């Protein structure tokens, strides 16, 4: 204990000498602070303060909004519960070394993370809807997938990968010696699961649940495609603006949505993530886990296979949709959809990529500089900067979308109608991901390296460019690719900020789906998927190339 | 070259006085060691000299310049870090060249100086290698070369050997000492290893809880510790509580010992006052062990409880006068004793501390 607090106080004292009075750092600090205040705090306050108090007071009398709130919370409970359970079982299965096909299962569960938000919903309409390949053509059923049950299925499949990823890290970190010890003391597999695995995974479960809950509440893409007539907060905001041009109503609705997401986010930050951190550090044991008995192994394989098929159906449906002449009626192959998609929306795909690259670049740079500036947490302003940099993670995309709509269509800064409003909204929504990656990377670099550079004469910004930037190349590339993929697949922000001159692919896909042009929508979605997978592949290549010869740690 | 002076330097971290009114004078060209347990303030003191922390109070001088407000790189100091802090993404050459580049040294001169620094520490042929490919000892040399290449007035070393294995530690510390002599650099060296401090220093400042406990040459520190902390931290010692029984006479339990009470200068005035309490500090090698009772003062009959053969010496735990005494017998050959023995405590090897 004494040692630990000693370390903290030491690094605090050091900040004073190294950081104060460095003009370059001061300028960087002011710049990043101004950006975060202007593009995170200002739009937030603009949304909340846009409606008058009476508009908020009128909420209890608005039956549709009450229903939307109730439905949103219900979907949150249903989808979070199912996605967490599926995610946990999937992670439990795929972290066992002796599970047949575990690598394939693991890779498959990552696919939805690189895909547009509405894709699962669209694909399941193609597979299980009234014209569904499986429901109508193969089984001859007449099924209505629109509504809460369809949305439940779709959100479970779309969001369980997040849960599996987080829980998987925690399970992976559980020292196998504990399992051997429990076995040695006479525990059977079920007892081991109940008394060792589940209790140790609890912080991971909690973190996964909160993250999935936020994602479900904020889910716009799936809801807008498959929820049908079910009022939900995330989609209600858009209907207010699209149908009624009711900015006030939209602002009220997204403010209502911000309450639970921000609450869950704060809960995650102050309560769970700290425990999670201690749980997932300290690996290093090379011991192999004890073998999984057959009566555990085969049910797990069966379960993973079912989930994997549900994921594969998503991609199969979209790919098939892009080539089938008339879905549900005429299954002959055609390239017409591609022609339509690329003629109508080819430019929008290019536009998506441009917006994606610009915003991802901005996100990664601002996030890295912000992480560097706050890495000492010495002063109150540094802590304030830290809060601003993670704040957007608490906000649903629709909130940011309306925030930028309200904030930047009027002086002092008018961006409406330009690509910049879209780029900046996406940039600052994704700051927390890049920021957290950069902060984690900075933590792994020993402080004395910075001191050595300063001792030899490097100024504050030289330390950043000479030492931290080269060492954080990997984190930078990862944050760039993540931000890029999230930007090109985003719908929730895009729908509020595109104009006819600045359309992007996801918006066109939504229009095609709602206009009944399923083939073209499928073709354009396939093309978009191609872009994201290409980005992932090239990033992997770049990282493995760039880091060759560079030591790890 | 320059001397280093600290005058009443204090530094607090929160409620903790990390460095408390420390005054030091490091003469030009000397090898000066700050010795103490972890948390004693030695590293903080070094970092104050380096310029990583400003002192809360007091002044730091390098040469004749007061450097309190100078940033690290303007102080004519260079630091070697405990973890080496080599830039992992730069080759050995780039690491060593970094400080010169920051000083805008032109490339022909730069290459020559880097090569000179590397050959000084005995590293040749690894210029294009990344630090992670080097052994711990080689990394240590790169760190040393990186510090030396900027030609600092004062070299600061923060536990530079603590990450090396025992044999290498001894070899490298000798090399560092030779290098210091050869270059005539002023060195301020931090370590918690008392043997290391004794072996290489001109002067040692022993620190505890932020305060300097004693400053002296290795011989002074070892044989004439100023207080119980220093005696306990540096080397091994028997501490014997005793009562003054008369002029130059101590009583330990029922045993009477002749002791040079008046010989201890600072306590001469009270030396012979009966009833005063003192602590006798006896190094294990200062006590002689006999099989038969010798004709001498201060002989105690005793019984060997445990014996431990350490190669260059044999260490005994002997019970005598109701106490356990640790006694070292140098070059024991193949002989390890047991049973009844006699301890002889020579007067001139006794060190006496007043109760404070």
TrEMBL record, chain A:
It is found in: Cell membrane; Membrane. CDD domains: TM_PBP2. Residues 69-265, 349-539 form the ABC transmembrane type-1 domain. Keywords: Membrane, Transmembrane, Transmembrane helix, Transport. It is a multi-pass membrane protein. It holds the Pfam family BPD_transp_1. The chain crosses the membrane at residues 24-42, 73-93, 105-126, 204-227, 247-267, 295-324, 355-375, 387-408, 414-435, 471-497, 517-543. SUPFAM superfamilies: MetI-like. One of its GO terms (biological process) is transmembrane transport. Its main location: membrane. One of its GO terms (cellular component) is plasma membrane. Belongs to the binding-protein-dependent transport system permease family. This is Iron ABC transporter permease. It comes from Candidatus Segetimicrobium genomatis.
From TrEMBL, chain B:
InterPro entries: AAA+_ATPase (IPR003593), ABC_SmlMolc_Importer (IPR050093), ABC_transporter-like_ATP-bd (IPR003439), ABC_transporter-like_CS (IPR017871), Mo/tungstate-bd_C_term_dom (IPR008995), P-loop_NTPase (IPR027417), Transp-assoc_OB_typ2 (IPR013611). SMART domains: AAA (SM00382). Residues 4-234 form the ABC transporter domain. It comes from the Bacteria. Pfam families: ABC_tran (PF00005), TOBE_2 (PF08402). Keywords: ATP-binding, Nucleotide-binding, Transport. One of its GO terms (molecular function) is ABC-type transporter activity. GO terms for cellular component: ATP-binding cassette (ABC) transporter complex. PANTHER family: SPERMIDINE/PUTRESCINE IMPORT ATP-BINDING PROTEIN POTA (PTHR42781), SPERMIDINE_PUTRESCINE IMPORT ATP-BINDING PROTEIN POTA (PTHR42781:SF4). This is ABC transporter ATP-binding protein.
